[in-house]
Amino acid sequence: xxxxxxxxxxxxxxxxxxxxxxxxxxxxxxxxxxxxxxxxxxxxxxxxxxxxxxxxxxxxxxxxxxxxxxxxxxxxxxxxxxxxxxxxxxxxxxxxxxxxxxxxxxxxxxxxxxxxxxxxxxxxxxxxxxxxxxxxxxxxxxxxxxxxxxxxxxxxxxxxxxxxxxxxxxxxxxxxxxxxxxxxxxxxxxxxxxxxxxxxxxxxxxxxxxxxxxxxxxxxxxxxxxxxxxxxxxxxxxxxxxxxxxxxxxxxxxxxxxxxxxxxxxxxxxxxxxxxxxxxxxxxxxxxxxxxxxxxxxxxxxxxxxxxxxxxxxxxxxxxxxxxxxxxxxxxxxxxxxxxxxxxxxxxxxxxxxxxxxxxxxxxxxxxxxxxxxxxxxxxxxxxxxxxxxxxxxxxxxxxxxxxxxxxxxxxxxxxxxxxxxxxxxx
Length: 427
Ligand code: HEM
Description:
Blueprint: H1 25-29, H2 32-43, E1 50-51, E2 66-69, H3 72-80, E3 85-86, H4 100-107, H5 116-127, H6 130-153, E4 157-159, H7 160-165, H8 167-177, H9 184-196, H10 209-233, H11 239-244, H12 255-286, H13 288-296, H14 298-313, E5 318-323, E6 327-329, E7 332-334, E8 339-343, H15 344-347, H16 383-400, E9 405-406, E10 410-411, E11 420-422, E12 424-426
Parallel strand pairs: 2-8
Antiparallel strand pairs: 1-2, 3-5, 4-12, 5-8, 6-7, 9-12, 10-11
Helix pairs in contact: 4-12, 6-8, 6-16, 8-12, 9-10, 9-12, 10-12, 12-14, 12-16, 13-14, 14-16
Protoporphyrin IX containing FE (HEM) binds at residues 87, 92, 109-110, 121, 169, 173, 264-265, 268-269, 272-273, 276, 310, 315-316, 319, 344, 371-373, 377-378, 380-382, 385-386.
C-alpha cells in the first residue's frame, strides 16, 4: 500500500527541522545522505514532529495529521502497546484512514487488531509446520544456487535487482503457496504495483493509482482463489492446502481471508527481501573491508552481517498506528484519534542506541534494530525465512562471484518502501 505525498516543489537544502516535509515527494527522492541528515534533525527535536495528512485518492477520510516517531525508544514503546497504538481502524500501511474492507482486503492481519489479528496469525503460524519449514530451507539454497548459475551465464553482469535479488523471494513465496512457475511474472508485476504505485515506472498517471491498485489486488486474489478451489478438492503439501483445509483445532481461512493473506504475503515477502538483498550488495560494494571480513568466515559472520544489512536497508520505512486513548509516552502526550508513524529506517540510525550508526559493520553487536518491526503482535512473520533467503543469496554470491560490484541504485519513489528498482552489477 502507498501514501500520496504532494508534487515535487524543487529541491532546497535542509538546514533545520522546519525545512522538512515528509509529505513532499521530493523529500523521498533525495539521496540517502540528505534523508539521514533530515531524520537526525527530527530525532533531535524535543518531541516528535507533527505533519498534516497528505491528500488521498482512495476514498478514505483525511484526518488532522500524524506524529513522526523517529527515535528507537518511541518505536519500541508504541509497538509494545497495541491496545493504545492500534493497527486496525483505518490501517497500518497508509496514512489517511482506509475504509475497513479496503484495508483488510489489501493488508489482511497487518491491518487488524486482536482478537481478529490473533486468530489469523494463529491459523497461519500453524500452517508453517516444521516439515514445511525444513522443505523451504532446502528449496531456498537450491534456488539461490540456480540464480547465481544464471547470473554467471550473463558473462559480465546484469540488472542485479530484477535478475538476482527479486528472483529468490518471488520463487520461494510462489512455491510455498503452490503457484506454478508460469505465473511468477504475473505475481511479480502485480506486487510491484501494490507497493510501488506511487512510482511512475509502475503506474504512469497519478490519477490511475486507485484503479491500478484495485485491479492488481483483484488479480492476485483470483489467482490464489482458483488454486484454493483445487486444493480443497485435492490437497497437497503446500501452504494453500493447509490454510484452506481445517487444522487440528478445526480452524481454517475463508476464501476471502486467503486471498487477502496472499496479497500480504507476496507484497510483504517479496519487496522487502528483494530490497534487503539489493542494499546488502550495494553496502558490500561501498565497504570492501567488510566484504573481506565476511569472506574470511562467511558462516561465522553471517548472522550478524544479515542483521546489519536489514538495519541499514530498513526496507519497510514506516508502519502507522492510531491512538485509541489519551496516553503519555516518553514524556509526550498522544491524544485519542491521532496517528503516529513508526519510522523504522530512522530508529535504526538512532545515535542514542547505535554506536556510529551510519557505519556498516557486519560484526555489530548488539544490534537491536527494528527492521522487522518492533516487539509486539505484528513482528514480522517472515523474519526467519527472510534471514534464511538473504544468507543463502550472499553465500552463493560471495563463494562463486566474490568480486561482484554493484553500480548506482535507481531508487523507488515511495515514502513507505525503501526500495531499489534497478541496479547494475558487474563481475
Ligand atoms: C528483509 C525482509 C523483511 C522485512 C524488512 C520485513 C519487515 C516487516 C515489518 C517491519 C513488519 C511489521 C509490521 C507492523 O508492525 O505493523 C512485518 C510484518 C509482516 N511480515 Fe515481514 N518483512 C520481511 C520479510 C517478510 C517475509 C519473507 C514474509 C513472508 C514470507 C513476511 C511476512 C510478513 C507478515 C505476514 C507480516 C504481518 C504480521 C502481522 O501483522 O502479524 N515478511 N514485516
